[in-house]
Design a protein that fits this description.
37% of the residues lie in helices and 24% in strands. It has 433 residues and is an alpha/beta fold. The protein folds into two domains: 115 residues, Urease, subunit C, domain 1 (Roll), CATH 2.30.40; 290 residues, Metal-dependent hydrolases (TIM Barrel), CATH 3.20.20. Strands 1, 2, 3, 4, 5, 14, 15, 16 and 17 form a nine-stranded mixed β-sheet that branches. It has an eight-stranded parallel β-sheet with strand order 6-7-8-9-10-11-12-13, sandwiched between helices. Bound molecules: zinc ion (ZN).
């Protein structure tokens, strides 16, 4: 199947962003085969006129906990540790596989509607919703996290580790490679050194990737120093975690030496500005990281701490909060920000053939409807995308050459079914006992 998009403003990338006004983009099956100003000579099965639209690469949400949409809005106004232990965990303990599937589908719909083509997820027992992820047509790196409290009995811990290994072996590179399975360590404060080391070794044996939470709050960071006499970054470094390709979420409280370690080991940092601002965690030192050449990507975090899965909002917030905080409007060029949300996300997920609109790349394409007052006039598309665009401007989201979302309709997720399943889920989880 060959499909040609015509008359669209195409945001291509060759060493830098390049805008092709009223251009053509051709795809064959799951790949981009043409990007250019002139109409290609070869024949296409279908031509779609996209006048008034921009075609951009799909976005990557590099840190989320998809089932947590069920907890959206709970515990607002609480500090992170009370939010987690008093509001999240008691409900999460009651969640069944069916409940997690509902929460996951809600999050995926939010992401598709905001132009996200790939996400990195960390949640208990992802096998409970992996079938939904495959059916959605999205790209995902699903992490099976280990949380090992000192009080855990060894048998149940061994069972959880076994479950991670089985999950990896069963699902990695499934669905034409759209699904990748990562190992995940929830955080320093929810694990033991022995488990962290075991997990890092397992990950290395399987040449997989790791997802972790790192120095999300000053409290967590300082308590680690009291416990271990070192920062969380140094703790994970010494346990050989960073010998694996690692995505570290938050990194708000990291110190200069920590950033040197992250750079040395090529760790990807995931910036979650909404979550950090909402939970009062603080400002990630993004400028210090960029100065060191650390790869920074963007994430929403779970719906319970954001409270949505809208990566346009994360781009916008990342763009403005640091400039304000540092009194420097030159801190974050829009091209760099958009690269964090696209190319750098794809690369950190281990997807070198995704993240940009160029010949030979996967056909992961988002169409933006430019016919909105807040997008007029269009002097600078990158600036519009970062500072002005809304998720609702997304007209189409395509992954692997398949349209998954268009005209506000989800083509791979049954929204009515989700609504129906949600009603039952809420009765189960929140009805008065
Ligand atoms: Zn998180």
């Amino acid at each position: 199947m060959k499909l040609l998009f015509a008359n669209a403003d195409i945001l291509s990338y060759e060493n830098d962003w390049r805008l092709i006004k009223k251009g053509y983009l051709g795809i064959e099956n799951d790949r981009i085969i043409y990007v250019g100003q002139n109409k290609p000579d070869d024949a296409y099965d279908q031509v779609r006129d996209l006048s008034g639209h921009a075609l951009i690469p799909g976005l990557y949400n590099m840190h989320t906990h998809t089932p947590m949409s069920l907890l959206r809005g709970l515990g607002s106004g609480l500090p992170l540790d009370r939010w987690l232990f008093e509001q999240m965990l008691p409900v999460e303990r009651k969640m069944t596989p069916q409940h997690m599937s509902v929460g996951n589908r809600i999050s995926m719909m939010e992401m598709l509607a905001s132009g996200v083509v790939g996400f990195s997820d960390m949640y208990h027992h992802p096998s409970n919703y992996v079938a939904d992820v495959i059916a959605s047509g999205m790209r995902a790196n699903l992490g099976h996290p280990v949380m090992a409290m000192l009080s855990d009995d060894p048998a149940s811990l061994a069972g959880r580790i076994r479950e991670s290994i089985d999950f990896f072996d069963q699902y990695n590179e499934r669905a034409d490679g759209r699904l990748l399975t990562d190992f995940a360590i929830h955080a320093e404060y929810t694990s033991t050194a022995e488990t962290v080391r075991t997990y890092a070794e397992l990950c290395k044996e399987r040449q997989s990737r790791l997802q972790i939470h790192l120095s999300e709050t000053i409290k967590e960071h300082e308590e680690c120093k009291q416990r271990h006499g070192k920062t969380p970054a140094r703790y994970f470094y010494d346990l050989d975690v960073f010998s694996n390709p690692t995505c570290a979420a938050h990194c708000v409280a990291v110190e200069p030496e920590d950033m040197d370690l992250l750079k040395e080991k090529d760790v990807t940092v995931v910036h979650n500005p909404s979550s950090n601002m909402k939970l009062g965690s603080g400002y990630m030192p993004i400028h210090e990281m960029m100065k060191r050449g650390i790869r920074v990507t963007l994430g929403t975090d779970g719906d319970a701490s954001n409270n949505n899965q809208n990566l346009f909002e994360e781009m916008h917030l990342a763009a403005i909060i640091h400039c304000g905080y540092m009194h420097d409007p030159t801190l974050l060029p829009v091209g760099d920000l958009f690269k964090m949300a696209t190319i750098d996300g794809a690369v950190s997920q281990g997807r070198g053939d995704c993240g940009k609109l160029a010949v030979g790349m996967k056909a992961d394409i988002v169409a933006i409807d430019l016919d909105a007052p807040h997008l007029m006039p269009n002097h600078d598309l990158l600036s519009l995308l970062v500072y002005s665009a809304q998720a609702s401007d997304v007209a189409m989201t395509m992954v692997d050459g398949k349209i998954l979302y268009e005209h506000k309709e989800f083509l791979t997720i049954d929204k009515d079914r989700v609504r129906y399943d949600l009603r039952k889920t809420l009765d189960d989880l929140f009805a008065e006992e």
